[in-house]
Amino acid sequence: MWTFLKSRFSPPPRTAEFQFLICEEALEAPKGQWYRLDHWKRFNYLRYQPGKDWSKDWKVGSAEEEVVGLHHRKGQKPFMLYGDKPGFSVQLRREPHNKYDKNAIAVDATYQERNYHLGYLSKYTAALMRMEPALDARWHSCEIPAKGQPFRLNITVLVRSAAWRKKANKLPPPLKKGK
Question: How many domains does the chain have?
């Protein structure tokens, strides 16, 4: 296991240790782990191997969606401190009363029963997802800051599948005339 050391938080300066695996092939990456492939040129780009796949009630709405606003709210700090720990999860939360965007969807994280606001989905993606009855998310990838490069975090946005919608909208059969 390799460790990526990072010291960008100030004041006071702190070092966060973010653990990930370096694999020759993606199939080698264990479930629930951050990894990078040995041949990738961007050494600070990491992918996440989901611990368990989502049920058939969900489908991918947006495969690799960047979380925006990380730097304005220091959303990268909790991610760098806890992102590689088991139990650190991502959630989406609608903000209909957001004064900047009525379709705003916040990206939050939870670790050991504490909630952290990381950022938002882009205005474009939030507008596309406004009619979805339910949303969920999974980690996808990140770029750890190195040599002046910015921190980036991407998630997979999940929406309800057509099969789930059909079950949820199932109505009782209409009454027959004369009976």
Answer: 1
Residues 24-52 have a mean pLDDT of: 80
Rounded CA separation 39/31 (Å): 20
Cis peptide before 12 (omega within 30 of 0): yes
Residue with tokens 């240790």: 17
Question: Among all chains, which residue has been given the structure tokens 């199932």?
Answer: 170
The candidate with the shortest Cα–Cα distance to 137, out of 172, 101, 94, is 94
pLDDT given at position 163: 76
Helix then strand then coil, in percent of the chain rounded to 5, is 15, 40, 45
Query: What does the block give as tokens for 119?
Result: 């950022």
In a domain, 130, yes or no: yes
> Scanning the structure block, which residue is given the tokens 């190195």?
146
CATH number of residue 37's parent domain:
3.30.70.2330
Domain span at 108: 2-168
**Structure pTM?**
0.78
